[in-house]
């Protein structure tokens, strides 16, 4: 049939997608969990689910689809285990943004851990992953207004924590 891919072609296409998407998904997962091992498991689970749905995934929005799966998986895992955020060895970032030292990245994760789950997701996706409010809303399955509210509350809580812990010196 015309338009159907062979399994080998589908696997090759997914392999390319996976190699391009894995670094971004890994950073997002690590910021959501604060633990390198749990982040790796989360990314792996998200990629497995994305692969299972690959024939139905629109290729122009495959990363957004995988990110949504990752976030849903994180929510499911958090609900089932109520695991708290813990910090571990920080993953290397694949970008040129090496100006942020390990200490600062560690502090960012510790600060994010103080936020409620929904605010943490919104702040990570909106400001770390640099998604639009609409993209965050779509990824989380919430309204744009809920994104704006969670982002505002999350940033206010982070500022308050920074002011308290650093005496307003930042």
Please describe what this structure looks like.
This protein has 170 residues and is an all-alpha fold. The protein has two domains: 1-85, Orthogonal Bundle (Rna Polymerase Sigma Factor, Chain: A), CATH 1.10.1740; 101-170, Arc Repressor Mutant, subunit A, CATH 1.10.10. It is 71% helix and 0% strand. The protein contains seven helices and no strands. The chain has helices spanning 7-33, 36-53, 62-81, 102-113, 117-128, 133-140, 144-166. Helix 1 crosses helix 3 (62-81), helix 5 (117-128) crosses helix 7 (144-166) and helix 6 (133-140) crosses helix 7 (144-166). The chain is elongated. The termini are far apart.
Which SSEs are present, and which pair or pack?
Blueprint: H1 7-33, H2 36-53, H3 62-81, H4 102-113, H5 117-128, H6 133-140, H7 144-166
Q: Please, how many domains?
A: 2
Q: What is the CATH topology of the largest domain?
A: Rna Polymerase Sigma Factor, Chain: A
The amount of beta strand, in percent, is: under 5%
- List the quaternary state of the chains: single chain
CATH architecture of the largest domain: Orthogonal Bundle
At the first level of CATH, what is the class of the largest domain?
Mainly Alpha
How would you sum up the global shape?
elongated
Continuous helix count: 7
The arrangement of helices and strands along the chain is HHHHHHH
DSSP helix fraction: over 70%
Largest sheet: number of strands, sense, barrel closure: none
- Structural class based on helices, strands and sheet pairing: mainly alpha
Query: How large, in whole angstroms, is the Cα Rg?
Result: 17 Å
Tell me the distance between the termini.
62 Å
Low-confidence stretches: 82-100
